[in-house]
Amino acid sequence: MTIPQPSKNEKERLDALKEYKLLNTQTAPDFNNITNLAANVCNMPIAFVSLIYKTNNHLLSCYGISLDKTPRDISFCTWAIQSHEKIYMVNDIHKSEIFKDSPIVKEYKVRFYAGVPLINPEGYALGTLCVYDHIPRKLTNVQCDTLVSLAEQIVSLLELRKKNHQLKNAENELIKRNKQLENFAHIVSHDLKSPLANITSLTRLLRDENVGNLNEDSLTYLDYIEESSYTLKEYIDGTLGYYKANKLLDKQKTDIYLKDFFEKIKEMLIIQQAVFEYPTEGIVKNINEAALTQIVLNLVDNALKYNTSERTKVRIEYKSLKNHHQFTIQDNGIGIDKAIQSDIFELFKTTGVKDREGKQGTGIGLATVKNLVNKMGGSISLESDIGQGSTFIFTVKK
Prior knowledge:
Radius of gyration: 35 Å
Largest sheet: 6 strands, antiparallel
Distance between the termini: 68 Å
Helix content: 40-55%
Order of helices and strands: HHEEEHEHEEHHEHEEHEEHEE
CATH topology of the largest domain: Beta-Lactamase
Strand order of the largest sheet: 3-2-1-6-5-4
CATH superfamily of the largest domain: GAF domain
CATH architecture of the largest domain: 2-Layer Sandwich
Strand content: 15-25%
Number of helices: 9
Number of strands: 13
């Protein structure tokens, strides 16, 4: 039997074939319906899907025969992928100088072969969809067209499997990188906290031990150092909080009494002077209380800090929707410019406005809120005008 030589693009073809991650798979049940259909449409006793690698044909699916691979050098399919024909057909193998002495002919007593090359989008022939018979045959035009269509369907399935594999790899890589970033944030934050505490302490000590000895400029410089240390500490604490927030999602869901929940929020934020209105009746069922607490704390804290009214007001409402819990948090604060409202939920993006104590935010709190809301199957929106307060509406899935 004559053995065909590999084509000029054989290396590229083999590289393309490996991307489908199927060469170590003995069988692929996804393709069984196609081989069954090919055999029945063509009225053939044998059909299979093969991928042609270096030395073997890897059979992904077989009909009428039980094999997982065959030697490439005696394969009809090797000739089929190098024929550049839409369908490669040998009507009577006994009359073929190429195949009449093939071990396959003797062992399986085949007399007819038809194979359609599986051409991927890059133009590489990966293998074949083929049928065999024990008698000389000819295929009708309808049978030929059907085999070609089925081969195209196989290629589509192969491409889908490859894309799914690539997506899985990308997902795993993203999880890995996020974990590395989280570990990095913890390490850096921990290493920075101690020297920051030292700077703050030494600054205060220097001021206390030199009362009356420092001029106005020196005192101003010390204030700058202390304020910068405080700002950096806020960034560190916020960054840690952002990554720790994801762990809140692992907490079990529970039922909460609205009155008890918001009274706890009031105590945690030490709300005394502001008007704080919230639902005093009702139960929210099946919700992650830890994550909800983090969301509400961030939003209410902002409502209190970014408020210059004579009397701060914060009003909270709850609604039970068909598939979601909905919370509305409304304040009479300074409001947020519409030009930047689309950016405020991004990490480290701030409004550029200082709070009532003259401090500027880190841009981490609202990013944490959105991160939690999204991962709880909900969404968050903002309605605000400068000087008219803000209304945040967020939902979480039931």
